[in-house]
Amino acid sequence: xxxxxxxxxxxxxxxxxxxxxxxxxxxxxxxxxxxxxxxxxxxxxxxxxxxxxxxxxxxxxxxxxxxxxxxxxxxxxxxxxxxxxxxxxxxxxxxxxxxxxxxxxxxxxxxxxxxxxxxxxxxxxxxxxxxxxxxxxxxxxxxxxxxxxxxxxxxxxxxxxxxxxxxxxxxxxxxxxxxxxxxxxxxxxxxxxxxxxxxxxxxxxxxxxxxxxxxxxxxxxxxxxxxxxxxxxxxxxxxxxxxxxxxxxxxxxx
Length: 254
Hints:
- This protein is of the alpha/beta class.
- It contains 11 helices and 8 strands.
- The chain has helices at residues 7-13, 28-35, 53-63, 78-86, 100-109, 136-139, 153-162, 175-181, 191-207, 218-227, 237-253; strands at residues 18-23, 41-45, 68-72, 91-94, 145-150, 170-173, 210-214, 231-236.
- It starts with 6 loop residues before the first helix and ends with a helix.
- 39% of the residues are buried.
């Protein structure tokens, strides 16, 4: 029995657009609700959400196979990649990549030897159904999906070299941190920021890797889709709840 098929990885490789949202509420209940809404993926945020390995696990278990699950780890460290993969999460996003050396380290962390350095704990890991997936070790590497975030001028400078590396499925531009690093905190719409993002997207797509971004503006999402971006974050659980609640109370008071 092989490792489960990573449908998100396959879709990105085939250049099929994949739309999803961020999960920051750290709630398996809301994750279950959103899993049935038709998104291609849900991202459990360990960087800016109050998530830990146990809360990531409970949300992944709740979502199950109804949609693809992505985990953004809080920082790009090998041991965190290993823990998340052993949970059965096949797609990992790593924030704040600023060098080809760090990018290569993360790519290596995603694979078992001899391709990488992932530790062999399949016999006790949910990823291999606690050892019951007999061919997991020989098939898991082909199903892991790595998304790297570029969020600074240093990351943009390193992007051409990063794009030559194997083992990277998608490069994701983080607009908010990039805007702040460029001197425009809170203003991702600044022409200089948008120009830098568009240039990076062209570079990523030309390399043959998938390009990704997050925007809550559907008109801007359409622009990115027209550029060829295929990993598109179009919302988050907190903004959805907050905006709907604000609109409801305003309407009630009227």
